[in-house]
Amino acid sequence: AGGAAAMEEAAAHNGTGPGAPAPARPPATPEGMALAYGSLVLMALLPIFFGALRSVSCAKSKNSSDMPETITSRDAARFPIVASCTLLGLYLFFKIFSQEYINLLLSMYFFVLGILALSHTISPMMNRFFPANFPNKQYQLLFTQGSGDSKEEIVNYEFDTKDLVCLALSSVVGVWYLLRKHWIANNLFGLAFSLNGVELLHLNNVSTGCILLGGLFIYDVFWVFGTNVMVTVAKSFEAPIKLVFPQDLLEKGLDADNFAMLGLGDIVIPGIFIALLLRFDISLKKNTHTYFYTSFVAYIFGLGLTIFIMHIFKHAQPALLYLVPACIGFPLLVALAKGEVTEMFSYESSAEILPHTPRLTHFPTVSGSPASLADSMQQKLSCPRRRRQQSPSAM
């Protein structure tokens, strides 16, 4: 998940903010620009809000297929370096090889990822529309390696007939995107990627979030203002890794082609920090979501400032330049005012994942459902002497 997120963060931006119209096209009308920028802001807020809410239940889930990917401080420190190498590698790739073939491979790659992400996104909503007598059968996809006591689980995914229906509906959108590259299909995939990123990528604490956002703040500013690498890659890269909205929609309808854009990295990276603050709010058990709403308002302020500066200077802006200080600064000021800075920085999000079982550093040598895996772990906890005699193999 970290590699995919790095790729999205590195390549999604055209300056990581809403892009200005191409010089060869007629200037957008004030109404068209307002509609485009307002729609981008709304589309950015939706996956952050709902992804943060879903991250709370995801952290408490015992289903192995829904377990979040925890980002540690070491991961956060390496992330800007990995993103920079990915960005530079893509830049050299587009310079050496034909752009057509690269984008064809990338389209197929994101076609598969997009279908899975969209299916996972709409599944909870679609379950409400199925009749009570719907014939819903359970399935399990299980891949193991080895045999006997050395057997290790590689994939253990449970799904049902309803999930297959969602997968079929998502495939229709995928074929539409693959054939037409329509901006609506692009946005459906982009929203699904963003929501899944906010839901499934978890920062383990606030310090890690500050390291990640601070590193990408420097990364974003350098690659946008210091070189033309990011702009070149963004213009060459055809994939649903940015949200777009036409500024000439009022004149041309659904066939409009003068787009403003926002990279998914500008949604997911602040979004996982905002989701962390929501889980921190819940851990305080005060029945308030002060830090979540503060950071959410801070994100709106930072994104609005990005659009304002871009409109004034007529140049694409690195959105993290404005989003990072806002998303970190506003909640920190609230914590200072409430005297909760120590509690904020001592909060550990990863402790809430399977709170009565240890973090898995290896796959238990059992097969079956996630419930049987949890039972196996409980048995190991209840037999400490036996556990010391074992020598489980690390991943």
From TrEMBL:
Keyword Heme: no
GO molecular function: aspartic endopeptidase activity, intramembrane cleaving
GO biological process: membrane protein proteolysis; signal peptide processing
Compartment(s) where it occurs, according to its Swiss-Prot or TrEMBL record: Endoplasmic reticulum membrane; Membrane
Membrane topology: Multi-pass membrane protein
Transmembrane spans: 34-56, 76-94, 101-122, 200-225, 259-278, 290-313, 319-337
InterPro entries: Peptidase_A22B_SPP, Preselin/SPP, Presenilin_C
Signal peptide: none
GO cellular component: cytoplasmic side of endoplasmic reticulum membrane; lumenal side of endoplasmic reticulum membrane
Keywords: Endoplasmic reticulum, Hydrolase, Membrane, Transmembrane, Transmembrane helix
PANTHER family: MINOR HISTOCOMPATIBILITY ANTIGEN H13, SIGNAL PEPTIDE PEPTIDASE
Record family assignment: Belongs to the peptidase A22B family.
Name of the protein described by the UniProt record: HM13 protein
Annotated gene: Hm13
